[in-house]
Write a structure and sequence with these properties.
InterPro entries: Transp_IS110-like_N (IPR002525), Transpos_IS110 (IPR047650), Transposase_20 (IPR003346). One of its GO terms (biological process) is DNA transposition. This protein is mostly helical and about 230 residues long. It is built from ten helices and four strands. The chain has three domains: about 70 residues, no CATH class; about 70 residues; about 80 residues, no CATH class.
């Protein structure tokens, strides 16, 4: 693939697939081949606008190519290695936080059933271990940001905003590496927080938010709640 792309001076495009595309992306970059990740939702909308309903690998490949030719600015370049490390650390931390949430829900359920004492030792040890791992990842995130001057500067600016702390600022840096070069309106659109109008003639419809980078939308909403109080 790399040889074919180089011979044709082509750009390799692909949809995000829940992280499975990262190895391909890194290998193409290492071979000096330009590669771009395109948003699946936008490719799907593009297919619908063309009346394409059939789904097959060859059809998908053609749609991705046509979409990128139509909207080249929608393609994302491979983030730097430090950004990829930050993304992996924040993703693993989020996974552990979710595990702790489920564990606490189970502990409350045991208490309601009156059998909390039966599992107290196990639950206590498990919670302590998860808390310890979350703290360890938080420390690694802090060190990763502190080791890079540009990332550290960006984090300081972000944390000066009410409601934004270590985790939210890290998520913004990891999931929106272009944050230093875009406007507030563009950032809102990328996170799916820009209200979309639904107007027709004299009718002024209800505004709604949709799409964007889901992981970011959640943490920014939480930050807004903190800032509001």
């Amino acid at each position: 693939m790399a040889k074919l792309a180089r011979d044709r001076n082509a750009i390799v495009c692909f949809k995000s697939t829940g992280g499975q595309e990262w190895q391909l992306w890194a290998l193409l970059e290492a071979e000096g081949v330009a590669a771009r990740q395109v948003p699946p939702a936008q490719v799907k909308a593009f297919a619908q606008s063309r009346g394409t309903r059939a789904k097959a690998d060859r059809i998908d490949a053609e749609l991705i190519a046509r979409f990128f030719a139509f909207r080249p600015e929608a393609g994302r370049s491979l983030p730097t290695e430090k950004i990829r490390i930050l993304r992996a650390l924040t993703s693993k931390r989020a996974q552990l936080v979710e595990m702790r949430k489920r564990l606490l829900a189970q502990i409350r359920a045991h208490q309601k059933l009156g059998n909390a004492a039966m599992f107290e030792d196990v639950d206590s040890e498990l919670k302590h271990r998860i808390d310890s791992l979350i703290k360890e990842l938080k420390d690694r995130i802090t060190r990763a940001i502190a080791s890079d001057h540009q990332l550290s500067e960006t984090a300081i600016v972000l944390r000066s905003i009410r409601g934004i702390g270590l985790i939210v600022s890290t998520m913004l840096i990891a999931e929106m590496p272009e944050i230093r070069t875009i406007t507030g309106e563009e950032a809102a659109a990328l996170t799916g927080l820009a209200p979309v109008a639904h107007d027709s003639g004299t009718l002024r419809g209800k505004r709604a938010i949709a799409g964007g980078r889901r992981a970011l939308r959640h943490v920014i909403f939480q930050a807004a709640l903190v800032a509001a109080h």
